[in-house]
């Protein structure tokens, strides 16, 4: 069996990633511990949480956590978002100085908080500004040879999908790779991702195209890549509580067979190791609270999981939280 394209290296500018299974940037999820965990399960690349292009925010603790790449497998990629060309250029340079080998521009985030500032996917309403932002970002590190990538959506509103124009603007600006989520901002995360326009973008541009949206099984990853012809697949929500999805996809592509999910014992070890990493990274107070959503994702579908989570949410210390999680896995069983 020939090696599937998704298992081969991909070049982005002057950087090469080991395979074409990419972790999507997700606010509050793809922090340093999660990115390293996903890569340990076979993801070839992972992009940081979005960092707002505002120098007043750089020194805030949350931004410092998001821009922490300690111990991460290269090449390191940081995502920035902003609506002012000069500030975006500053943010790009800041992340390069901070260790990023690739900088990703966010024009896909659909949240009201981001779109209110005419950032994220709201930018798709102003293509002149899109051009200015991308030109500024690329030019800001052109002398360093740092590749700039872009993550976006099909368009802002249904019936007004303008991804073909955005892709041409990006290519002309010198963007090194384009990731496209198969929804508009209006869709948010509802309905099904649409891949037809992504296929057309791939057929009409020369830069690497990364397809994103609803890729939640090995079979779906294979089908979506082959249908669109995309150079890579990007996986986001399907990796929440299931970082081993990258291992499952790689195994399926290599053998044509489904890999068995982790046993309860393996799951316990994965979760406890992840908790240790979160506690060390964030400290006592934040570590305990940030871990809660990951624990909830990991335990979804297990016997007595709802009652366990209600009790777990009341634990206020990392020691107490770790103990109840450990006890839960020792006494529960698979129900899915």
Automatic annotation (TrEMBL):
Q: Where is the active site?
A: 109
Task: Respond yes or no to whether keyword Cytoplasm is given for this record.
Answer: no
* This protein's name: tRNA-dihydrouridine synthase B
Concerning SUPFAM superfamilies, the annotation shows: FMN-linked oxidoreductases
- Broad enzyme group: oxidoreductase
Q: Which residues form a coiled coil?
A: none
What NCBIfam families does this protein map onto? Answer: nifR3_yhdG
User: What keywords are assigned to this protein?
Assistant: Flavoprotein, FMN, NADP, Nucleotide-binding, Oxidoreductase, RNA-binding, tRNA processing, tRNA-binding
């Amino acid at each position: 069996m020939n090696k599937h394209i998704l298992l081969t290296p991909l070049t982005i500018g002057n950087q090469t990633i080991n395979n074409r299974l990419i972790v999507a940037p997700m606010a509050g999820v793809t922090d340093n511990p999660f990115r390293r965990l996903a890569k340990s399960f076979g993801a070839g690349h992972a992009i940081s949480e979005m960092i707002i292009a505002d120098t007043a925010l750089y020194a805030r603790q949350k931004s410092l956590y998001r821009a922490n790449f300690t111990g991460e497998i290269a090449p390191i990629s940081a995502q920035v978002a902003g609506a002012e060309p000069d500030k975006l250029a500053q943010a790009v340079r800041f992340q390069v100085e901070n260790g990023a080998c690739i900088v990703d521009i966010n024009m896909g985030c659909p949240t009201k908080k981001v779109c209110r500032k005419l950032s994220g996917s709201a930018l798709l309403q102003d293509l002149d500004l899109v051009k200015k932002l991308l030109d500024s970002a690329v030019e800001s590190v052109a002398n360093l040879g740092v590749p700039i990538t872009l993550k976006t959506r099909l368009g802002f509103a249904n019936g007004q999908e303008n991804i073909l124009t955005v892709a041409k603007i990006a290519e002309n600006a010198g963007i090194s790779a384009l990731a496209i989520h198969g929804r508009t901002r209006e869709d948010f995360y509802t309905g099904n991702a649409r891949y037809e326009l992504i296929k057309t973008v791939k057929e009409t541009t020369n830069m690497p195209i990364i397809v994103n949206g609803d890729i939640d099984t090995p079979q779906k990853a294979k089908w979506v890549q082959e249908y669109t012809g995309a150079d890579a697949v990007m996986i986001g929500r399907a990796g929440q509580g299931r970082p081993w999805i990258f291992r499952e996809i790689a195994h399926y592509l290599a053998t044509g067979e489904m890999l068995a999910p982790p046993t309860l014992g393996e799951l316990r070890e994965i979760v406890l190791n992840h908790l240790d990493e979160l506690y060390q990274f964030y400290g006592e107070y934040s570590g305990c609270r940030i871990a809660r959503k990951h624990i909830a994702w990991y335990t979804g579908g297990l016997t007595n999981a709802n009652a366990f989570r209600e009790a777990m949410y009341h634990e206020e210390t990392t020691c107490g939280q770790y103990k109840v999680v450990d006890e839960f896995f020792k006494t529960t069983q698979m129900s899915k």
